[in-house]
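Bit of a strange request maybe. I'm writing a small parser for structure token strings and I need a real example to test against, not something I typed by hand. Could someone generate the tokens for this chain?
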Amino acid sequence: MATVGWADTTKVTADWPDAPDATTLVQLLAVAHEVLEEYAPKPVLDPPPERYTLAQVLLCQHLAARKRAGDGDTYGPEGFQFSTYPLVMEARALIRPKASPLAGVL
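Reply from user aminoacidic:
Good idea to test on real output. This should exercise your parser:
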């Protein structure tokens, strides 16, 4: 396979058993990379930290879940609902870690 942004598609599919087909995966990884590259502090480090790759995969998983869920966010015969929004927040936190205002004080 190929490298899309910061992520290698072979490693992503090995670590993500429910990954979408190769074409969709490349598309979602590209979108996730584009969004996170805009969000990342400038200049983007070369090579990027490993957390950037993880952030790209988490955002890709969020996008895949949203695409699969459609408008209803329901899965299964009983219509369970859940949100993957915490993945977006986690991806953003990996790109721009927040320092506690109390860091170093306590």
